[in-house]
Amino acid sequence: MSSKDAMSNFIDLLDLKCILFKPYIDAHVAQKEEENRKAREQIEREEKVKSEQVNGNEVSQETSIEEKKRRLIQDALNQQTYAQFRAYAEDQFPGNPEQQAVLVRQLQDQHYLQYMQQILHAHEQQNADNKVIDVIADSGIVQTPEEEISEIGPANMWTLTNIKSFKEHIRKEGGDAIIKIGHGETVTVRVPTHEGGSCLYWEFCTDHYDLGFGIYFEWNKSPTNQVSVHVSETDDEMISDVDAAYDEEEDDEDNSELDYEDEYENEDEETQLYQGQKDTESGRTGSQPRKTTKIVNRSPFSIISPIMRRDCHQEVYAGSHCYPGEGVYLLKFDNSYSLWRSKTLYYRVYYTR
């Protein structure tokens, strides 16, 4: 008999003579397996705790770095805008330093949030810039190397909750500060830079409904410092506004009057030029490209803030922008998306030294 067979026979005999031996062995094996499982779970928990501690340290370090970056950015923005916001606060609360300080802090916080939003929407703004460039290319505007657009900084924008008092103040001032914008119309307020100024401010709100708003800068020195308002219903609002402004400037310089017969002849020529093609969106017809003799080689413009719909019926929208040079600011109030509703606009623009 081999040793293996002897061991097997011994176990069978022991199992036969001692009935409790097998349950004892089974229980012992199960206990060992349970101890091993608990040991593995303990090791896994310890490793998980260590991993969480490491990740927590990394997150806290990242949070600390982000907080430092945020403070650096906000401090830099506050240094740039403190003088502007201080001047605005002094104008809003003259002789009240406490209210001025509170307003300055609120404006600085709103400016930081808007600055970060502009960074997040940089891609969308780039797409908007590309669309404007496509419009310029399709319209035949020619820009020579001497007319290259200079770099221009973003605008500072914030909101105010005193919309009722603002409307009352505008009503008392009277003048052209209240404009009714018809459905499908775009109103452009042209504000030339002033020789004695360094920064432009604007405030506006509406009754009941929102309104699109954007601001552009035209790199062309205006012969007058007068603020003018232009209403447009065409899809190429920027081009038509520039045409209208230049027509007025030429009329002021030459002191000449239009010949109505020539005007009608020009309209007949344009009708013949556009005859034959239908464009359901623009409303024009014709197979020839758009006339561009009036807008060739004119000063380019920069987009400070693209047109976006603003909830200006709930809050007063305000902003400022430091002069990038001599030119004309174009404040565009867009109601072209509205098919039925007209909007009542309350606005104010001024400059600071």
Automatic annotation (TrEMBL):
Stretches assigned to the ACB domain: 1-23
UniProt xrefs under Pfam families: GOLD_2
Coiled coil: none
Compositional bias segments (type: Acidic residues): 245-271
Residue ranges with Polar residues bias: 52-63, 272-292
InterPro entries: Acyl-CoA-binding_protein, GOLD_dom, GOLD_dom_sf, Golgi-PI4KB_interaction
Biased composition (Basic and acidic residues): 33-51
Stretch list, region Disordered: 33-66, 245-292
SUPFAM superfamilies given in the database record: Supernatant protein factor (SPF), C-terminal domain
Source organism, top-level taxon: Eukaryota
GO molecular function, one term: fatty-acyl-CoA binding
Alphabetical keyword list: Acetylation
Gene3D superfamilies the record matches: GOLD domain
Domain GOLD residue range list: 163-351
GO CC term, one of those recorded: Golgi membrane
PANTHER family with a match to the protein in the record: LD35087P
Name of the molecule in the record: Golgi resident protein GCP60
Organism: Diaphorina citri (Asian citrus psyllid)
